[in-house]
Amino acid sequence: MNYENPELLERLAAEYVLGTLHGAARRRFEGLMLASPNVRAAVIEWENRLSGLASALPDQQPSERIWQDIERRVFPEKDRTTYFWRGRAILAGALILALVTLFVFAPQTVEREVAFVSEGNATPLWVVSVNFDTGELYTRAVSAKALDLDRVYQLWMLPQEGAPRSLGIMPVDGRTQTQRFSPALLDLLKTATGLAVSIEPPGGSPIPTPSGPVVYQAELIEI
Asked: Rounded to an integer, what distance in angstroms lies between the CA atom of residue 9 and that of residue 39?
């Protein structure tokens, strides 16, 4: 496997920082971080990208169980990697805060996916979390601002087959939104290739698919 491939490296770094890279794959990636400046840079970039979430969202007090779960995800082999993380304690702390935010705001279930909608490598515009147990999709505008009065942002699911499916109008200016979807739509979302955001007239697209330009896309990541 070519770990220096930019697309593969970006995906693995994101999974590592989010804590979704497990077992032997995580241990191999930690070894790569020690040996490769490019791998370390990719991880630091994702840590910086997520650290903005901690300051963008209001403070919440997580339970002790959540802290323990996050610590296990971030430091699965604490003794072996202590020297690596000690020099980056501030970044690790910011990462924990970002993950706490995700765990607190997203319902505490096993089946959950999250997406960070951003422009390039900037702070995320929105954080989207879907809870498959409750059927709820939670969206928070982190840095997304309102458009002109005659335009809105609309969220779309990109299924493996067929046309995009609307997931509703997106919040802006720090607002949050929770929606509940049918089991049929959730089944499609479980296998979707990602999400997209288009610019539409007030009330959303007048047709079943985007009528305006698609300006952002994001991958759903299981957590």
From this structure: 7
